[in-house]
Write a structure and sequence with these properties.
By secondary structure, this protein is an alpha/beta fold. It contains nine helices and seven strands; from the N terminus they run βαβαβαβαβααβαααβ. The chain has a seven-stranded parallel β-sheet with strand order 3-2-1-4-5-6-7, sandwiched between helices. α1 crosses α9 and α3 runs parallel beside α4. The radius of gyration is 17 Å and the shape is globular.
Length: 248
């Protein structure tokens, strides 16, 4: 129960990695704010948390909107009185070659993936500064390091997250707030399954040193560690969670 009495916001928490992280915080005693653009699915995760005995709140949020990100923060403060952890996980990954990416699609991906990290982080920083404590964790991707065929907008946004994390970590260090990133590799969620077959995922898993693609649960341990007191002297860092597929 490392997070008893603490409040964690997780965006993109209605499915996949975000859902797994939200449930992980719940199991360890945190009050969990389930943020997602899909309000119905967010409510379903809320019910899972409550069934497990957790205090939780579901908030429909568009992280690419400044007012919506601010509303997420306000609802969390209004319900639980404080924010101790923010996990910026919300993201989208449409597949298009560069010559076919429309400007609107580029903007939507960058505004959601990178802009969402910026807007949600900026919303919670005053509260964390006043507490002189806080943890901000941004979910990037290994594709931000090595690129993504037919996903230039996604790779660019995820690379931008790493730069943003390092900059914000420097700004907030004196306030007792740490900022770090997690870079998952290919993970068994709806996102890769939307543009890869089962056979392709299996073949990709066989090429990974640990012999399989990731599961959402694989990202939970690193997220909880970075949010815990055990990581109080770690900031501006990137943890790669990909089974050894890409070794920096």
């Amino acid at each position: 129960m490392r997070f008893k009495g603490k409040t964690a916001i997780v965006t993109g928490a209605a499915q996949g990695i975000g859902r797994a992280i939200a449930l992980g915080f719940g199991r360890e005693g945190a009050n969990v704010v389930v943020g997602d653009i899909d309000g119905g699915r967010a409510e379903a995760v809320l019910n899972e948390l409550k069934t497990g005995g957790s205090e939780a709140l579901a908030v429909q949020v568009d992280v690419s909107s400044e007012s919506s990100a601010a509303g997420l923060k306000e609802q969390a403060i209004g319900r639980f009185g404080r924010i101790d952890v923010l996990v910026n996980n919300a993201g989208i990954y449409p597949v298009s070659p560069v010559l076919e990416i429309r400007e609107e699609e580029w903007d939507r991906v960058v505004d959601t993936n990178l802009g969402g990290c910026f807007l949600c982080s900026r919303a919670v920083v005053p509260s964390m500064r006043s507490q002189k404590s806080g943890r901000i964790i941004c979910v990037s991707s290994i594709l931000g390091h090595k690129g993504a065929k037919n996903g230039a907008h996604y790779a660019a946004s995820k690379a931008g997250i790493v730069g943003f994390v390092k900059a914000l970590a420097r700004e907030l260090a004196s306030d007792g707030v740490t900022v770090n990133a997690i870079c998952p590799g290919v993970t068994d969620t709806a996102q890769p399954r939307g543009h890869r077959s089962e056979e392709e995922l299996y073949a990709q898993g066989r090429m990974i040193p640990l012999g399989r693609i990731g599961q959402p649960q694989d990202t939970v341990g690193p997220a909880l560690f970075l949010a815990s007191d055990a990581a109080s002297y770690i900031t501006g860092q990137v943890i790669v969670v990909d089974g050894g597929a890409y070794m920096l």
